[in-house]
């Protein structure tokens, strides 16, 4: 039996535009998905998904009778059990050079699901690591990130960047532009506060929406390029340790994401609550449509304001997690 864990992330900036080759800076946070994998006698997969935000479920499939079971559980969890876990196990089998093997898989996660904190990447990265180790092989963090990206790419219908998976595998603050993925060295202390509206956004649908806008309007394509420009300005601010400037750029980034149609009333409400509480800056994080915002605030004011904001179901401080994927036992 092997357990591996990997962190979720917030985007300091650059989501969506990163899908079109612009740079992005995601930062791993101290909220993890843990995946436990145990080899089975047969070639079936059995997945137990226990999410803190849901009751969880158990499902078995594969082997000789590949009938998809009819279970009364939230669709996203079933998709996880099939798409992401299936993909992670397939990658592990390929990496270990094993033609087939069955596993009992348990997923436990304190990353809200489909909320922009990269729960999918964390589950896939931890899943590939645990299953590969269970088969007696071991992958470098870079190889894990690459294989996890292939899984996200397939599940998200060919619309994914390497940002989430690389960040989850490596930990810390990272910079991703196309295939060029690197960890950022010294970064200033980033006082992240996260607000969560309890909702989910469909990453694939939201990415498709931006792609369509970009095709229809030149100025939408310009907005995507402008996000790239502000990320480059943000990299300079990171090097200078200028956290105030980072905040201003986050505000600007939220405006552009909003123009691209991926914000939501609940996200805007939390962003404004943070700004009125004198946060240095605030923006939605991840795909959008619902889920989380991230603000920068050294004081407790934003956290307190979010706790009293209607529509915000959870607010918490998120520390940068410098550790990426790791084996737990
Ligand atoms: N704890 C979990 N258990 C099972 N599946 C999970 C878990 N967390 C995430 N997933 C999978 O990841 C998907 C969410 O990924 P996505 O829409 O990309 O949002 P995000 O990565 O921002 O959380 C879920 O629909 C589910 O398939
Ligand atoms: C919108 C996007 O840039 C980030 C999606 O992040 P999340 O899955 O919502 O955490 C898509 C991607 O980079 O694959
Ligand atoms: Mg995701």
Automatic annotation (TrEMBL):
Its cofactor is Mg(2+). One of its GO terms (biological process) is isopentenyl diphosphate biosynthetic process, mevalonate pathway. The active site is at residue 164. Residues 236-300 form the GHMP kinase C-terminal domain. Keywords: ATP-binding, Cytoplasm, Isoprene biosynthesis, Kinase, Lipid biosynthesis, Lipid metabolism, Magnesium, Nucleotide-binding, Transferase. Catalyzes the phosphorylation of (R)-mevalonate (MVA) to (R)-mevalonate 5-phosphate (MVAP). Functions in the mevalonate (MVA) pathway leading to isopentenyl diphosphate (IPP), a key precursor for the biosynthesis of isoprenoid compounds such as archaeal membrane lipids. This is Mevalonate kinase. The lineage of its organism: Archaea, Methanobacteriati, Methanobacteriota, Stenosarchaea group, Halobacteria.
């Amino acid at each position: 039996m092997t357990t591996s864990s990997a962190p979720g992330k917030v985007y300091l900036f650059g989501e969506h535009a990163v899908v079109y080759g612009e740079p992005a800076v995601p930062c791993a946070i101290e909220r993890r998905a843990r995946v436990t994998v145990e080899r089975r006698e047969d070639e079936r997969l059995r997945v137990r998904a226990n999410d803190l935000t849901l009751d969880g479920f158990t499902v078995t499939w594969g082997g000789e009778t590949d009938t998809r079971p009819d279970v009364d559980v939230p669709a996203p969890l079933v998709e996880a059990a099939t798409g992401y876990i299936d993909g992670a196990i397939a990658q592990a089998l390929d990496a270990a050079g094993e033609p087939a093997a069955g596993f009992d898989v348990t997923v436990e996660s304190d990353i809200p699901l489909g909320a922009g904190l990269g729960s999918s990447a964390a589950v896939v990265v931890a899943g590939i690591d645990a299953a590969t180790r269970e088969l007696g092989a071991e992958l470098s963090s870079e190889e894990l990130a690459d294989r996890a990206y292939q899984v996200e790419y397939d599940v998200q219908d060919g619309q994914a960047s390497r940002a989430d998976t690389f960040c989850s595998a490596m930990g810390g603050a990272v910079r991703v532009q196309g295939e060029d993925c690197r960890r950022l060295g010294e970064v200033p202390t980033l006082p992240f506060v996260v607000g969560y509206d309890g909702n989910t956004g469909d990453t694939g649908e939201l990415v498709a929406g931006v792609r369509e806008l970009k095709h229809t309007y030149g100025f939408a394509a310009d907005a995507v390029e402008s996000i790239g420009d502000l990320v480059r300005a943000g990299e300079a601010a990171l090097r200078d340790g200028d956290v105030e400037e980072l905040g201003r750029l986050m505000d600007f980034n939220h405006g552009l994401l909003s123009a691209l149609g991926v914000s939501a009333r609940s996200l805007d409400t939390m962003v404004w609550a943070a700004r009125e509480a004198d946060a240095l800056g605030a923006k939605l994080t991840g795909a959008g449509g619902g889920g989380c915002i991230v603000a920068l605030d050294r004081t407790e004011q934003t956290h307190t304001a979010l706790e009293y904001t209607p529509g915000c179901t959870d607010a918490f401080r998120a520390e940068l997690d410098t550790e990426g994927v790791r084996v737990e036992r």
